[in-house]
Amino acid sequence: MLIAQAKKEENIVEYILYMFQLHDLIRGLNFDQDAILYNLVKPMAKSEEQEAEILKWYVDLMKEMKSDGVAEKGFTQEVSSKIGELSLLHGMLMQQLKDGRYAKIFETAVPFIQEFRTKTDDDKISDILICFNAMYAKLILKLKKTNISSESEEAFQAFSTVLAYLAMKYKEMYQGKLTFSLN
């Protein structure tokens, strides 16, 4: 099973962050199928059959990125849809279900979300997408071995906690364990 498929089934947040990374890797390799084969597919494949399956998956993802108009930046409609589902779940937890535990977790993140929102210069971006963008930025900073201030680390921890709770509730929802009854 592909890593992306496994992550999608196990933890939707990890899946989305992984897809952010794959989108950037594909862009970094200039959508070059040979470069993707040698840099991404071959190290992962354990057989020629698996190599063909993985390469097809990457080729399909490249086509999807181009058709969705995200060859230069952004993420596919499929990833955007998953973020949208998590944003809707966030609203359900806060408004309809009045999940007190989640409300406290989210309240801790609100000042950091507001701070990051001012840096994005896009007041229409959802709170949940801000959390994702921040966590992806942290991943990039770690890969570059850039020091992260304690203030930023505190914000990243708040975002991580929000996303982890949403991932848990998302999985419960798809397993039929989360009810939206208002009775």
Can you walk me through this structure?
- The structure is a single chain.
- The chain has 8 helices and no strands.
- The chain has helices at 3-10, 12-28, 33-41, 48-67, 77-96, 100-120, 127-143, 150-174.
- The chain is 75% helix and 0% strand.
- Helix 3 crosses helix 4.
- The protein folds into 2 domains: 3-67, no CATH class; 77-174, no CATH class.
- With 183 residues, it is mainly α.
Task: List strands and helices in order, with pairings.
Layout: H1 3-10, H2 12-28, H3 33-41, H4 48-67, H5 77-96, H6 100-120, H7 127-143, H8 150-174
Helix pairs in contact: 1-2, 3-4, 6-7, 6-8, 7-8
The share of residues in extended strands comes to under 5%
The total tally of domains equals 2
Distance between the termini: 41 Å
Q: Give a count of the beta strands, DSSP E runs of length 2 or more.
A: 0
Can you write the helix and strand succession as a string?
HHHHHHHH
For the biggest sheet, the summary is: none
Low-confidence stretches: none
In helices, the fraction of residues equals over 70%
Counted by DSSP, the helix tally is 8
Oligomer: single chain
Cα radius of gyration in angstroms: 18 Å
**C-alpha geometry:** globular
Overall mean pLDDT stands at: 93
Provide a quick synopsis of the model:
It contains eight helices and no strands. It has 183 residues and is mainly alpha-helical.
